[in-house]
Fold this protein.
Amino acid sequence: MRNKRNATLSAEEAREAIDALNACRTVLNRLSTNLTPTGEDYVTLSAPIEACYATSEQLCRRHGIDRYRHVSFLGRK
């Protein structure tokens, strides 16, 4: 197990994490599609959707991954 303070992902691990985050975001977006923007469930889903997006963006920048070229859904590229 890695030391959490000094943990660094390899480029491959970063890509896998980005894929997982994007898949989660896609599912959460689909769940929120039919909800009203002011509804409690929509608000509850908004935070994790934004967190997935922000973390994915950070990983792309940190590892020099072009997020527009590295797009997959559930393992399909």
User: Anything to note?
Assistant: The chain has two helices and no strands. Confidence is low (pLDDT under 50) at residues 73-77. Residues 18-77 form one domain.
